[in-house]
């Protein structure tokens, strides 16, 4: 069975919320909608305190090339335009809205009926996606409309749908495919039209047998859409790993997927595209797995952007008393949150609550040069070396060792018998090196 060639690991699945139907989180009394829910410049607010807004209304306009629109997820009154404290303690710009009813903007289809047909041109599709503020929902939050406009020297021939969901614990993409498979296939067709390509591959790991069977059934009349089962191996969801697994093409160091004729879109992004193009619905809600070994009701939830994650957590049974760590995302690439009193954003994908015993790191010891981190690295790097160079702040050697190629998957730390905080050091060093490169380019 197909997979990527270098490295990779097999962490325990822990899919506690598998097959749990997606549940809507109730609309709160107030939302805080961040203006920086994407890579690039924050959107610029176009509303004022006291303004009345409806669900789906534009409240923040993209500012610059690398940016995305922001919309209201509720109806009500703008109470404040200020900053909020994010999950890491930083101040970020946001719009505060007091909720009053649930009145949607005219023109948005709320019927929940499948809309299979469309007659838009590639340019019109991309414009609707731009207007709707769609970003990549696999975690990076790269504005989708930019991905759909690759450099002129890159000829795209294949669209790959990332339906892997290889992170332990996370299950919302799996469940989304079961519940909204037909809409996702329409969304894939729309993206193929936008990119003007004749081939799409849905890459999905073989531990999702029911989703594979269902998608194969509904794609029988779509000759150009292939459902490709892949070997279950982490981090199969990395763009470069998925491209290699699906097409046997290799994206070189520093290059983008478009350089090998491929564009990759997350399956949740595809559903958001369907809603934007077919229903005129902007990106105002996200699908999130809330889970953990001690949680009473782990599940998959649909959350309006701006809703406090602490409110959403109550739907899963609340925070267990023995919780030692709360992680945003999955256990491998997610990051520990200081608090859950923060709004759900386009970046939200998972909320993982680990008990004290599992949350506690083991005491690190001296590197024994076993090489396990090297064998596990899916990018063919030397994590032990990158970690040490970062620890010693030898930035020039760190750049020469291709630290910017690291996808921060955590495979190195997972395999380390000495419990070294390799990823922590590599993340720090990668951030510093990228800042150095940026300052060098802008001089």
As a percent range, the share of strand residues is 15-25%
- The tally of domains stands at 4
User: What's the CATH topology name of the largest domain?
Assistant: Rossmann fold
* CATH structural architecture of the largest domain: 3-Layer(aba) Sandwich
**What proportion of the residues is helical, as a percent range?**
25-40%
Q: How far apart lie the N and C ends? A: 48 Å
Task: Explain what you see.
The chain has helices spanning 122-131, 144-147, 172-195, 209-218, 239-247, 267-279, 309-314, 356-359, 372-376, 383-391, 395-400, 411-415, 422-442; strands spanning 23-24, 30-34, 44-45, 52-53, 58-61, 70-71, 76-85, 91-99, 158-162, 200-205, 225-230, 262-266, 285-291, 299-304, 323-328, 335-336, 350-355. It has 443 residues and is α/β, with parallel strands linked by helices. The chain has four domains: 25-99, Beta Barrel (OB fold (Dihydrolipoamide Acetyltransferase, E2P)); 122-279, Rossmann fold (3-Layer(aba) Sandwich); 285-359, Ubiquitin-like (UB roll), CATH 3.10.20.600; 372-442, no CATH class. Strands 1-14-13-17-15-16 form a six-stranded mixed sheet. β10, α4 and β11 (225-230) form a beta-alpha-beta unit. α10 (383-391) crosses α13. The longest helix is centred in the middle third of the chain and has 24 residues, at 172-195. The radius of gyration is 21 Å and the shape is globular. The model has no long low-confidence stretch (mean pLDDT 96).
């Amino acid at each position: 069975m197909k997979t990527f060639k270098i490295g990779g690991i097999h962490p325990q699945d822990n899919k506690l919320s598998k097959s749990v139907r997606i549940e809507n989180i109730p609309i709160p009394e107030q939302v805080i909608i961040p203006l920086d829910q994407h890579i690039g410049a924050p959107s610029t607010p176009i509303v004022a305190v006291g303004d009345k807004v409806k669900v789906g209304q534009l409240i923040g306009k993209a500012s610059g090339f690398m940016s995305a629109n922001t919309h209201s997820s509720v109806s009500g009154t703008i109470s404040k335009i200020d900053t909020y404290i994010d999950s890491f303690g930083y101040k970020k710009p946001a719009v505060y809205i007091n909720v009053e009813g649930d009145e949607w903007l005219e023109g948005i289809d709320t019927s929940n009926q499948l809309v299979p047909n469309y007659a838009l041109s590639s340019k019109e599709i991309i414009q609707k996606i731009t207007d709707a503020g769609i970003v990549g929902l696999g975690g990076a939050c790269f504005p989708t409309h930019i991905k759909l406009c690759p450099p002129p020297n890159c000829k795209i021939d294949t669209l790959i749908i990332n339906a892997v969901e290889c992170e332990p614990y996370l299950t919302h993409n799996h469940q989304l495919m079961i519940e909204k498979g037909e809409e996702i296939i329409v969304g894939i067709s729309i993206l193929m039209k936008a990119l003007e390509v004749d081939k799409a591959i849905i890459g999905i790991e073989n531990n999702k047998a029911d989703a594979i069977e269902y998608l194969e059934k509904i794609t029988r009349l779509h000759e150009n859409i292939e459902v490709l089962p892949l070997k279950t191996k982490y981090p199969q969801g990395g763009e470069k790993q998925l491209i290699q697994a699906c097409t046997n093409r290799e994206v070189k160091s520093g290059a983008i997927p478009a350089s090998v004729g491929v564009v990759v879109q997350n399956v949740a992004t595809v559903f958001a595209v369907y809603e934007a193009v077919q229903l005129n619905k902007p990106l105002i809600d996200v699908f999130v797995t809330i889970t953990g070994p001690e949680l009473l009701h782990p599940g998959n939830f649909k959350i309006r952007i701006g809703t406090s994650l602490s409110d959403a957590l109550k739907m899963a049974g609340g925070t267990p008393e023995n919780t030692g760590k709360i992680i945003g995302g999955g256990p491998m690439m997610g990051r520990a949150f200081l608090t859950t009193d923060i709004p759900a954003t386009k970046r939200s994908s998972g909320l993982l609550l680990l008990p004290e015993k599992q949350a506690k790191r083991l005491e690190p010891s001296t590197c024994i040069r076993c090489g396990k981190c090297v064998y596990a690295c899916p990018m063919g790097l030397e994590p032990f070396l990158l970690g040490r160079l970062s620890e010693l702040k030898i930035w020039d050697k760190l750049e020469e060792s291709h630290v910017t190629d690291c996808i921060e998957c955590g495979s190195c730390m997972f395999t380390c018998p000495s419990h070294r905080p390799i990823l922590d050091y590599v993340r720090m060093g990668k951030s510093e090196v990228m800042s150095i490169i940026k300052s060098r380019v802008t001089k």
